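Bumping my old thread because nobody answered last time. Still need a sequence for this structure:
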């Protein structure tokens, strides 16, 4: 079975003739549209851009991409924002190897934090609170001043007695068998 050629013979001959004519009558090639001093000036500008502007732009883009997890965690009120900031900084020092971890951490919901504090949101309004000791435990770092002790000895003794009764009730309930237990 004869298949028709891809191009009809007449069209193929015309195409070959056009290619040969183009090759025979081609003009001289130009390496650049500039010449002389303009070519040297353009080469100097391109060199300065390649040596100064491109590295600065690449470093800026690298830095901006690496602080994205920090910005995301701040926007989402992540309670572990400071740790994510630290991981972003370490990622810059390690050439970006830790960046995916910071990115994932910024988007995760802190389950253990919610179990401990009852919320998975952090408030970053009082960042200086984190520098005080016992901040997370909500314990006062300094003892209460002396003037907060009740002035009346009877009132003081009443408070102590109340606490002793509560303690004795807790001790007694600890030693009793649970209600409904068969022994």
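Sorry it took so long. Here it is:
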């Amino acid at each position: 079975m004869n298949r028709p050629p891809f191009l009809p013979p007449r069209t193929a001959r015309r195409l070959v003739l056009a290619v040969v004519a183009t090759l025979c009558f081609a003009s001289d090639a130009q390496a650049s549209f500039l010449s002389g001093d303009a070519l040297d000036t353009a080469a100097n500008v391109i060199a300065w851009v390649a040596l100064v502007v491109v590295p600065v732009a690449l470093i800026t883009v690298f830095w901006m991409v690496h602080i994205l997890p920090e910005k995301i965690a701040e926007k989402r009120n992540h309670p572990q924002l400071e740790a994510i900031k630290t991981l972003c900084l370490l990622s810059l020092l390690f050439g970006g190897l830790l960046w995916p971890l910071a990115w994932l951490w910024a988007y995760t919901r802190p389950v253990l934090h919610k179990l401990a504090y009852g919320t998975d949101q952090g408030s970053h309004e009082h960042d200086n609170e984190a520098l005080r000791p016992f901040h997370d435990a909500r314990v006062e770092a300094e003892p209460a001043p002396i003037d907060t002790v009740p002035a009346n000895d009877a009132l003081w003794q009443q408070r102590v007695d109340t606490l002793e009764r509560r303690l004795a009730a807790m001790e007694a309930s600890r030693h009793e068998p649970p209600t409904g237990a068969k022994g």
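Helices lie at 9-24, 37-66, 68-75, 81-93, 99-107, 111-117, 153-175. Let me know if any region looks off to you.
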